[in-house]
Amino acid sequence: MIKSGLVAMMALLICSPAISAAGDMKVETFLAKADALKAKGMLALASSDIGVLKAEGKAAGEEYRARIKSDKAKKLPPHSCPPTKAALKSDDLLAHFRTYSATQRKQISVKTAFAEMMKKRYPC
Domain coordinates of the chain in residue numbers? Predict the structure, then answer.
């Protein structure tokens, strides 16, 4: 019974049109989901939002790396100059996101905010 309920819940999550493609999320939504997960403590491990936030972060990182690679190929000035192996903690990302005003958080995407953080953190 529990197993069939779990399968049904996963199917609902996969097929749900309410979940937008990774990379479309606004900073406001990301922070709200992150704060809700933090409030759940250990129960957060069972939340589907963990996967949603990870996918969003992964999409932001991939777009950023593609931009760096594209700029280099086009011989454009680099957007930023991160080290080969840049370590980034989730707390650093969340702290950067919190620097935006409430109005900005509603308008700026996670991808854009991530790129801005990298530019600030690793200027050329």
Answer: 2-121
